[in-house]
Design goal:
The chain has about 150 residues and is an all-alpha fold. The chain is about 60% helix and about 0% strand. Residues about 25-35 have low confidence and may be disordered.
Length: about 150
């Protein structure tokens, strides 16, 4: 299913960027506060949705996280090429983790009373930077090497 292959690449990249460059207070702090510099040109891409950057927009994060999670489930069950165990295993798992991480952080931001289970908080929230980097890498590799085993 080429549609889900394309969605997995696109959503892996978007969720990776959301996890790395989400800049609101609850979502990892501002880049300026931490002394980090933004990627050149990202500021222009992020401009203008109700005074927020694109990666801070709650609806955008919700939609990207949910779609990434669902796409990860679908490509895990229906690989694009190859054997289902090996064909799209790594991109499917990374999509699942990235989507779940974005959704968990979104839920924590929306509901002050929500306390995630300790295992989810440890695995997903604490490692969101690494999951974001893995999602970006998987999206780029999945795009460049579409026929490679495990990608």
């Amino acid at each position: 299913m080429a549609q889900f292959y394309c969605l997995s690449v696109l959503l892996s990249l978007l969720c990776g960027l959301i996890l790395i460059y989400g800049q609101d207070e609850d979502f990892g702090g501002s880049l300026e506060d931490e002394g980090k510099k933004s990627i050149p040109g990202v500021g222009k891409i992020q401009e203008g949705i109700a005074g927020e950057t694109l990666f801070e927009n709650e609806l955008f994060r919700l939609v990207c996280g949910a779609l990434c999670f669902v796409t990860g489930l679908v490509i895990f069950l229906l690989p694009y090429h190859g054997v289902s165990v090996f064909g799209d295993l790594i991109p499917a798992v990374i999509c699942l983790f990235a989507g779940a991480c974005v959704l968990l952080i979104w839920l924590e931001d929306r509901n002050d009373e929500f306390v995630p289970p300790e295992i989810l908080d440890t695995v997903l929230t604490s490692n969101r930077l690494y999951i974001g980097i893995a999602a970006l890498a998987a999206g780029v590799l999945h795009f460049i090497l579409p026929g490679a085993p495990l990608l």
